[in-house]
Amino acid sequence: MENGRKDSFTLAILVNNKSGVLMRVVALFSRRRYNIDSLSVSETENPDISRITIVVHGDRNITEQIILQVEKLVDVRKVYEMTMDGSIQRELVLIKLNADETTRTHIVEIGELFKAKVVDVTPSTITMQITGSLEKLDSFLELVRPYGIVELVRTGMTALERGSRPLSETTFGDEG
Amino acid sequence: MKITGADIIVECLVEQGVDTVFGYPGGQVIPLYDALYRNRGRIRHILTAHEQGASHAADGYSRSTGKVGVCIATSGPGATNLTTGIATAYMDSIPMVAITGNVPISLLGKDSFQEVDIAGITLSITKHNYIVKRIEDLASIIREAFYIARSGRPGPVLIDVPKNVQEASYEFENVPLKEVAPKVSRLREKDIEAAVQLIKSSKKPMCYVGGGVIRADAADVLNEFLDRIDSPAGSSLMGLGAVPVSSERFTGMIGMHGTRVSNMAINNCDLLIVIGARFSDRVISKGSTFARQARIIQIDVDPAEFNKNINTEIHVVGDVEVVLGRLLKLLPEKISHGEWMTSIKERKARFPMQVAPHAKRAKEILEALDEVLPDDSYVTTEVGQHQMWTAQYLKKIRPRRFLTSGGLGTMGFGTGAAIGAQVSHPDARVVNIAGDGSFRMNSNELATIARYKLPIVIIVMNNHALGMVRQWQDLFYEHRYSETTLDTPLDWVMLAHAYGVEGMDLGPEDDPEEVLKRAFDLKKPVVVNALIPSDDKVFPMVAPGASISDMIGFVDLNPLVD
């Protein structure tokens, strides 16, 4: 339970920023039957490197296997497990909820508790934006679900290590 | 100096020390074949009958020489025909570079004639692959591809070169070859020391040897290690030859068609040392009962093999030869396990592999082959019963001289592999032991064997059936022979003659040694049609899902003792 959910782990994968690299990583997960809960990818401070954040579920053994298999890909520079304590993990959710005159204020109040932002309102719906950890998003979604979710989109978890050193400078060695 | 992309490919191949390539021309590799034509004194091109044959030949070249095998095909069907050979090489960790042509970049992605996304198709059967989109990158990609193919755990790499890149021109300069050092970057002293401690405290050690020992050319140091720690050793199919079949330490194959002695030792030892092996399902069978009582040390160049199929205690990451050398240094005194070795020898005498009522004819033929075959010969096989019989009975099995498709189990592999072995060792004898089912798959390569006058002897163990599947149908499907009877009256001798190859029959009454001697003495390509009863079986065996301790069909010379 490293990122707030049971049997779920967050991996940060630094890869060469080339076409087809994401496909190689995803194809490996698919071929070896590793389950991806969420995935996000973008360029980093170094334009030659992209960073893929993958949340996977499986037992400890599977996670170690995944790391070792992913490390073998030629375009993968580094794989790092982002622990709950050692990293900041965030996801952005856009959610469109049923909201009429009677329910709108309640929903906005719940949103305020979670620092959600109202980004669009129509006579029958309200659209909000919320960021946070898995736990926070899960509790928010549980509270607003009864109002009726019209549409929901999540960016996938992204994560950064705590402390001053960037991931690209940490050296491989004593983790196992 | 500016030269074309096609010439850059040839120059890079020469730079890598490539003397022979295997392939088949086609529309999108005409520029490359033109460069090969102009450089035919520097690189020999072997034209196969089919691209699959080229891929297996490159594989056989690599397995038998230790160098990188190279195969070439055109786009589309040419490229897809290579895939079985690439997957075969991938599963057995064979260094290979496959070069395919593709349609010009402007036509890529437009469903052009003979266009396939071969990089996408081979994603999961290569160590890495490339589409060369810029002529500027071509030379460095080829160099990198060879390096990747050879380094760490070897494997195939594919380079897809669109035709316009072959035709473009760019500056080329030779660069010195990048040496591939044995991988030890993740080798940790504390793991070696932990292994040494376990070895010292063991009373009943057993070694499980895999193809990694062959790939690392570590057979000599392995045998020294076995003597030093006084341990028996069994092997996977891929590890055969690392320990001489004649060695008193060798217990035979482990697993489904392994020996009773190997499988008992695995489940009786107190320490299992796994060296360059990957716990294939054909070895471990029911994983939860495999070496449960033993502590396990696993030595492998690929850390992803640790805890993949079986959890192991000590993980030593590194080149097998280097690791075994380090262990020998830390274990200077000879260790003795007299009682354990005696019990192994007793079991070997009691459960011999060499008594086989269920495969009498195959065994006679293989024993005759052992008599006739020179010591430095190369043996290839196809896949099925004949392959298992060869693994069980043939004594002349040596590192890099026994070429068989282990991981992928590719029927049709042996003929191509034999071409690769013979081309790279023109003075040695090469024999392909085939089944009639397997040989049908790629017998078109007789055209290649005839074209280059390769004196390969192909022994077709002809049981008029897909014998291994038939065996399973007998044992587990109540004799329902669904599509496994090959009763078409096919005249193998006449087929051989059609290609200009010699053909001989080895009938049930013939003396195998006399016929095989005659075949080898011709010093020409020969197909020997060796008749085998349809119902002969590969025994002993472990039924699917059973523990390797529960073998069926083994010979027990002393059944009253226990």
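The radius of gyration of chain B is 24 Å.
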